[in-house]
Amino acid sequence: xxxxxxxxxxxxxxxxxxxxxxxxxxxxxxxxxxxxxxxxxxxxxxxxxxxxxxxxxxxxxxxxxxxxxxxxxxxxxxxxxxxxxxxxxxxxxxxxxxxxxxxxxxx
Amino acid sequence: xxxxxxxxxxxxxxxxxxxxxxxxxxxxxxxxxxxxxxxxxxxxxxxxxxxxxxxxxxxxxxxxxxxxxxxxxxxxxxxxxxxxxxxxxxxxxxxxxxxxxxxxxxxxxxxxxxxxxxxxxxxxxxxxxxxxxxxxxxxxxxxxxxxxxxxxxxxxxxxxxxxxxxxxxxxxxxxxxxxxxxxxxxxxxxxxxxxxxxxxxxxxxxxxxxxxxxxxxxxxxxxxxxxxxxxxxxxxxxxxxxxxxxxxxxxxxxxxxxxxxxxxxxxxxxxxxxxxxxxxxxxxxxxxxxxxxxxxxxxxxxxxxxxxxxxxxxxxxxxxxxxxxxxxxxxxxxxxxxxxxxxxxxxxxxxxxxxxxxxxxxxxxxxxxxxxxxxxxxxxxxxxxxxxxxxxxxxxxxxxxxxxxxxxxxxxxxxxxxxxxxxxxxxxxxxxxxxxxxxxxxxxxxxxxxxxxxxxxxxxxxxxxxxxxxxxxxxxxxxxxxxxxxxxxxxxxxxxxxxxxxxxxxxxxxxxxxxxxxxxxxxxxxxxxxxxxxxxxxxxxxxxxxxxxxxxxxxxxxxxxxxxxxxxxxxxxxxxxxxxxxxxxxx
Lengths: 107, 587
Prior knowledge:
The complex is a heterodimer of chains A (107) and B (587).
Chain A: H1 2-15, H2 19-40, H3 63-94
Helix pairs in contact in A: 1-2, 2-3
Chain B: H1 4-18, H2 26-49, E1 56-58, E2 73-75, H3 78-98, H4 107-125, H5 129-147, H6 154-185, H7 190-199, H8 204-220, H9 228-236, H10 239-269, H11 272-296, H12 300-320, H13 324-355, H14 360-363, H15 371-384, H16 391-403, H17 406-432, H18 442-449, H19 464-485, H20 487-501, H21 513-535, H22 540-553, H23 556-559, H24 564-586
Antiparallel strand pairs in B: 1-2
């Protein structure tokens, strides 16, 4: 499942002819890490790890990976926002969003 | 105390942003930035020499209990604190240089530089893998934004996009590796994962995790075939930023690989010799590719960027020898290289500031009115060519001593000669008008002349605030070498490398006759290559060699296509090959 999301995202980045599409594919690649992190911490029959109104000994899923996923989402928000702003600039300067045309330097 | 090097720049950055409506006074910004980075460099310098501590610092006092880490750790050793200190020192020099460099600077430049500094420092000191990833991303995001600092031009937008997408893909693969190793070991702390891996037999999952984690770092350190983004980004980033990109950021990726290998995976993976050979092959390949691209380039900043790729290969080769002497050599080489490469970029920045171009062809002979810059640029270029007593010669000498393989020594020597020779060709042509002006290559000329609008309007003379950092970095490159020749200093560095690897040093780090001879030969060869690059049209022998060669190099354009899709494809292919090789070894 994780590998499939990762592969789909990478395939999208490699074949994309539109920068916005490419950036969204990058988000897909990153989404695979959310699924992986949450999957790694999953415990069969575990409950949400809020030990407020449940017993301290209750079986709960791993809270560490949830914290990691949240951090990961924050990172994603920053990177995606920045990349989309680059895409806006690219469209202004090059008049296109095709990565094959956005070439100022070669060689 | 150990948290200060990341807290101080972050607070300073936040204050600058918060005070933006109030402080429009440019010099306040510059002062805060110079002061902050200088202070960080001093604190880190103090941490390097502090000997009364185990080196671990736990945030908020959450010490590990029963071998299980619950808190966040900073591990402070001489090597990583030294690398962070190198970054902070470079940052200070660069902020002084920027004093008179930019036409108009918003708050953003200073804020981004400070967050970039915090990211670099945090990455060096972090003691657990997830924090390492977060600092890596902080450094990355700041670097992407800095690359596109002039979004009104086409080059920076393309460079930043290539940089950001390629590096993000690498970073997410790293995170995948981190998630896998956490799932297997239940730990994020490096020492704790290392202990787990050590206790258990090598497994496929651990190998895959190692591979994925180093992929992101290989992209950052521009190792072939993960290197394509680097030249695009370095050529267009503002020149002061390039100093840090080339001098420190690339090396941070390599540091990350070394750290992952020695603190976490290496002892548990086993198959040392074979794994070392894989890295050695990658390093040598990178050195060769970087040197060839460097030689054919006419855009001065891009040329320096390709020389960085070539040197990154040499550093990786030093690490790949897996001995304290090789690592100590790589560390010293990194320090020496950072100073001289920084000086070269600052020299290019002054040329751009005064003459409005970084096109070697157009600039031919026009640099004669910048005599001081010319002398310093040439000196730094000779330092890049490992001329004793620059720090580079001794670092390279130790790598050669540790390699004990004449073939590796010769190949790396040839790479240094070609890449440093190209820089000397620029120095001779631009500042002294030697040789014939190179023939105009229209495409490269157009690219290089795009570089406008970065600098101040007053171009009548070079301000002292720009010359002084250039001179200081060149002198620092010399000072590093002279210091390291002292037996006390070299023994301390070797001991630090041995401590980093957790194994005793077998061979001493001495100044050998062969390292001096190799250094002088390297500098001599580089001067010869530089002169050949300037005078080849007058010599029929060279002419017959050059012209078919130049046509062959046209093929190089196909690889360095500037298209993100190709770069990511190469990275995936590289990952697959590396994975196949590692699987074959560790099976």
